[in-house]
């Protein structure tokens, strides 16, 4: 872990709003090639973000968990910025709403008339399924 006096700036932005902009100890981001942790003074990188949960650490433990539906992450010496397609705090998510989202995506897949609609529906099924998994894990 980083020295308690060292923090990194973490920002999480969705198309609708700025969800997080604060000094944190560490973040773990679901990168396309696997989860990666970011500590202060991390080497610069840019990564795509897969659907999953970002864990935000303070005092050696997870303080917040936020579901992202994908996006991009940039890490530099000052911190980490995630531009998310969609982002929801796990405490903001209603299980019934997530289950309805999955049912709707499954209906869209059944009704798809071309490859583009099928691909969009499959992507939405993946996101809804991972959202439900994240809720189950807490």
Question: How would you portray this structure in words?
Answer:
With 138 residues, the protein is an alpha+beta fold. 29% of the residues lie in helices and 42% in strands. The protein is built from 2 helices and 10 strands. It has a 5-stranded mixed sheet, with no helix packed on it. α1 packs antiparallel against α2. The longest helix is centred in the C-terminal third of the chain and has 23 residues. It is elongated. The relative contact order is 0.17. The model has no long low-confidence stretch (mean pLDDT 91).
Features:
138 residues, alpha+beta, ATP Synthase, domain 1, 2 domains, 5-stranded mixed β-sheet
In short:
The protein is of the alpha+beta class and 138 residues long.
Break the fold down into its secondary structure elements and pairings.
Layout: E1 8-13, E2 18-24, E3 26-31, E4 34-38, E5 45-49, E6 52-58, E7 61-68, E8 71-75, E9 79-84, E10 87-89, H1 95-111, H2 115-137
Parallel strand pairs: 1-9
Antiparallel strand pairs: 1-2, 3-4, 3-6, 5-8, 6-7, 7-10, 8-9
């Amino acid at each position: 872990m980083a020295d308690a006096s060292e923090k990194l700036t973490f920002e999480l932005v969705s198309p609708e709003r700025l969800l997080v902009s604060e000094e944190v100890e560490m973040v773990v981001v679901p990168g396309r090639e696997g989860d990666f942790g970011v500590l202060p003074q991390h080497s610069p990188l840019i990564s795509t973000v897969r659907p999953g949960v970002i864990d935000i650490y303070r005092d050696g433990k997870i303080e917040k968990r936020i579901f992202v539906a994908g996006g991009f992450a940039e890490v530099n010496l000052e911190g980490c910025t995630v531009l998310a397609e969609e982002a929801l705090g796990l405490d903001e998510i209603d299980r019934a709403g997530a289950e309805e989202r999955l049912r709707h995506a499954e209906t869209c897949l059944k009704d798809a008339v071309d490859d583009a609609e099928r691909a969009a529906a499959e992507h939405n099924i993946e996101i809804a399924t991972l959202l439900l998994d994240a809720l189950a894990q807490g």
